[in-house]
Amino acid sequence: MRKMATLLAAAAIALAPTAYAQTETPAVPETAQAPAPNIEKVEIVALQELSEADQTRVTSATSQTSEADLQSLRTSLDGNQQAAAALQAEGLTTQSVIAVSMGADGTLLLITNES
């Protein structure tokens, strides 16, 4: 099974860099930020399909995520044509997405709470 290095944090950084633009002191100067990775493909997986260890990690990460952060993530996904199209093809919406992970190979993994 894939390792999930970061779930919501990676997505928030990759898909919604402007959400963090309002902090008083940027963690990294704007000129030093790496560009958002290109999305090569989108995979959708239901939480129940993950290994127990990955389910535990996702559940732990999502329990520490505010509703506002989750809504910001979903808004970013709505604005991404590839993610929105992949969800639509599966009969899902961004409201189903509870976590994401961006792989080094350009795979955006959308984890949903629906099978």
Explain this structure to me?
The structure is a single chain. With 115 residues, this protein is an alpha+beta fold. It has one domain (8-20, 39-112). 36% of the residues lie in helices and 16% in strands. The protein contains four helices and three strands. It has a three-stranded mixed β-sheet, sandwiched between helices. Helix 1 (8-15) crosses helix 3 (67-78). The longest helix is centred in the middle third of the chain and has 12 residues, at 52-63. The two termini are 18 Å apart.
Q: Please indicate the count of domains.
A: 1
Described by its quaternary structure, the protein is single chain
Please provide the count of β strands: 3
In terms of DSSP E residues, the strand content is 15-25%
Strand order of the largest sheet: 1-3-2
Q: Main sheet, how many strands, which sense, barrel?
A: 3 strands, mixed
- Proportion in helices: 25-40%
> Which radius of gyration do the C-alpha atoms yield?
14 Å
Q: Which word captures the global form?
A: globular
In whole angstroms, how far apart are the ends?
18 Å
Q: Count helical runs.
A: 4
What keywords describe this structure?
4 helices; 16% strand; 36% helix; 115 residues; alpha+beta; three-stranded mixed sheet
